[in-house]
UniProtKB/TrEMBL annotation:
PROSITE patterns: THIOL_PROTEASE_HIS. InterPro entries: Papain-like_cys_pep_sf, Pept_his_AS, Peptidase_C1A_C. Gene3D superfamilies: Cysteine proteinases. The lineage of its organism: Bacteria, Pseudomonadati, Planctomycetota, Planctomycetia, Planctomycetia incertae sedis. This is Papain family cysteine protease. One of its GO terms (biological process) is proteolysis. GO terms for molecular function: cysteine-type peptidase activity. SMART domains: Pept_C1 (SM00645). Keywords: Hydrolase, Protease, Signal. Pfam families: Peptidase_C1. Residues 32-329 form the Peptidase C1A papain C-terminal domain.
Amino acid sequence: MTVLLSALSLLLPPALLPQDAPPLTPPSELFRPEVVDHRRSQSSVKDQGHRGTCAAFSICGALETFPGVPTDLCEQLLYSTVKLHENDVDAWIRQIGGPLALKEGNALREYVPLFELVGTCHESVWPYDPRKAKAGPDVPEEIRRFLELTRIDTEQLRGLRDAAGKWGFAASDAEVLDETETRDIARLKELLRSGTLGIPVGYMVHGPSWSDVEKRPGVTIDPGMLEGFRERTPETVAAAEKVWLTYEGAHAICRAAGKDLVTELREGRWASGARYPQDDYGGHAVLIVGFDENGFLIKNSWGTDWADAGYCTVAYDYHRLYSQTALVLRAAKLRNPVLSPFETSARIRNGKWHLKLQPAPSALGEALSLSTWMEDLRDAAYEVVEYTLDVQGADGTWRTLASHASLAGPPDARTGALWTLSPLMAGQVSLAKRARVKARYGVDVLDANQPREARFVSERTFEWTPTSIRGATDL
């Protein structure tokens, strides 16, 4: 209705417009390009240093967007397990058989079985060191024992999972996209539009060009950072010296002729060629977190000094030409808690509890998701979390805004006890001077429809300044 009235407003004088009509949408707004931007839902930008751990960072980044998962997972545990035991993992899962030479870096697909069998832990268990890959002296013995074995079998991997691999995903909840599927821009857009907050993707890159991306908002990576281009004509084919055009020049020529450069390249009417020494080319994994009219918005793992505070746009033509594979995660899997009834109450009382705050996009504005996670190597078998949300006004007075009880899910399908505040309520929190949540952790839920009747064992209080929340945050 609003769109129709906006169109009529261009034709009718104001006196003839319906007097009770809703506010008119300006004509310029009717044709605005679609923008999906999930940066506010992301964990902080990490820095992998000069190591080939980009796939581990991109997958952990995607996993960190789910409720009940901390915003700082341990990339080191995952990467070291892959590197030390990838021969066995390949033999078990991919059934390739023969030995593989260990090398720096891994493809996204090689991590999927490790997340299924092991998972990863919180960064505090094994802090990432960008300078080396060996286990430091403070790494828990449970982890060291497995990583120092020369070979490892599936039972030993399960032991490592039980010792530290708390967060991961089931293979059934992960889909590895091949090159054709990855280059389907409409499909990736629909995933991002419908609630997927991050998609790990691998690109062919020219390392120095990516490293030298200008540090500013709005910077875009285009195909000219990888190759040069020329039209295939009898003259250019016969020429002894190949003259390559920039991407901008080639794109302009094709556009003037009503043609698409990528299609021309695929059908052989145009050619592309390397602009730099071959050793400077390689693969790199990043996390797609949105899109606009110019391309996909990506989160890199090269620190906040790169591009736009660690983010950048990859042009659609670059994605169509050089993306190689992607990983779609539908759900996170939290490992089963310790189920011993003799330990549950003590684990709840003594646990290292955290509250995760995560701005969440919605059709009506930005919501705010709250979820729970434990830093302990094994979770307590809590069944419900009761949240009470208070806000502080400018005069220093506190008032209760809302209260809610969330179930933690069965042992094999933990949820993080998610509570999502509506955009209206989230807006009230954002305007507060301070906010706090009192979380009570309970067991013995007899009726799922009456979670507040549980036996509550312990409680914690988390307080924060709303204006300081720039993205997903752990308290």
